Amino acid sequence: MGRAPQAAATKDSPPQDAVPEPRTSIAETLRGRVLRGLQAGTLRPGDRLPSARELVTEFQVDHRLILVAYRQLADEELVDVRERGGVYVAMSTSTRAGFPALPIKWFVEMLTEGFAHEIPAPELHEWLRRSIETLRLRAVVITSTWDQAAGLARELRDDFGVIADGIVGSDLAHAEVRPAVLRHADVLIATAAHIELARQIGAELNKPTVVVDVRPDLVVGEWALLLRQPLYAVVATAEFGEMLKKFFADVRGIDNLHILVHGTDDLSAIPDGAPTYVTHRVREALAGTPIRGRLLPAARTISTASAREIFNFIVRANLEASRAVRPAPSDEASRQSSA
């Protein structure tokens, strides 16, 4: 496991200039809802989406800005905008197992941006690989419950490519000796409730810290659609069940949320086919044991702003290490061409 240089430490909160402009923010929110709705089964290709005017109250902007965001998603072939006919999930969106079609325009823009920065297209993939694979970075997530800890650690492994472990903050507050997993970590990641504890430990162990926030659109996104019918959530701890109830307290249909604690409640109470969210901690405990209901895919909870901070740390640490041990791809290419 490579150690990240301390110079790669990120700030604990997103810089002001990292906040997207309203138009970008709307497009990102709508994009996420469509993609996660497809994965969760609450949306299907051809389904009608809320109109720009219907979303005015939520986004508090002129309906034309929302329409611009929809047209951006249409350019990505994610939705169809029909003149005077509404907005629909594109029929070409889902390719396999709920995964979206490749965002061709986004790939073209990324290659064009690389070209503008003097990075030839054949070398861009090498830079991307080095930016996330040069080091085997380790992260520790500090949260309030084991459900959160396991879920965020899973997201860090799956979406960011880091080795991640979770710890409950109450287990650390009065510990005389810091666990080895903390000493071996390259970065400490904590929810807002535990960021001060993470900073304290980070200062003791000389580790950078990053705070993660929950996606602000989670309440009005796919969960709002799921809660239109009975929804079952299987959790590892009653504390996390109470957190879910409080988090979605203002969502219409909250009475449809049924919390079941693994090891305490009878999971056979879940009706066949009912949408069922099982936390990653419980999935690990079940070890493949079948459960009734239609299992929903793991929810992505980390906000885009928090993801930007995590990627900032990952990329800087990896590229600094890469440059320390070998020349850049363009330097290698120039030497080979002159040989």
Topology of helices and strands:
Layout (H helix, E strand, L loop, with lengths): L21 H19 L7 E2 L6 H4 L3 H13 L3 E4 L3 E4 L4 E3 L2 E2 L3 H13 L4 H13 L4 E6 L2 H15 L2 E6 L11 H4 L3 E5 L3 H11 L3 E4 L9 H5 L4 E5 L2 H10 L9 E5 L13 E4 L1 H7 L7 E2 L8 H22 L3 H10 L1
Parallel strand pairs: 6-7, 6-8, 8-9, 10-11, 10-12, 12-13
Antiparallel strand pairs: 1-3, 2-3, 4-5
Overview of the structural elements:
The protein is α/β, with parallel strands linked by helices and 339 residues long. It has three domains: 6-14 and 113-214 and 302-338, Rossmann fold (3-Layer(aba) Sandwich); 18-105, Arc Repressor Mutant, subunit A; 222-295. 43% of the residues lie in helices and 15% in strands. The chain contains 13 helices and 13 strands. The strands form four sheets. It has a four-stranded parallel beta sheet with strand order 7-6-8-9, with helices on both faces. Strands 11-10-12-13 form a four-stranded parallel beta sheet. A hairpin with a 3-residue loop joins strand 2 and strand 3. Helix 1 (22-40) packs across helix 3 (63-75) and helix 5 (121-133) packs across helix 12 (304-325). The longest helix has 22 residues, at 304-325. It is globular. The model is unreliable at 1-23 (pLDDT under 50).
Notable characteristics:
339 residues; alpha/beta; Rossmann fold; Arc Repressor Mutant, subunit A; 3 domains; four-stranded parallel β-sheet; 13 strands; disordered N terminus
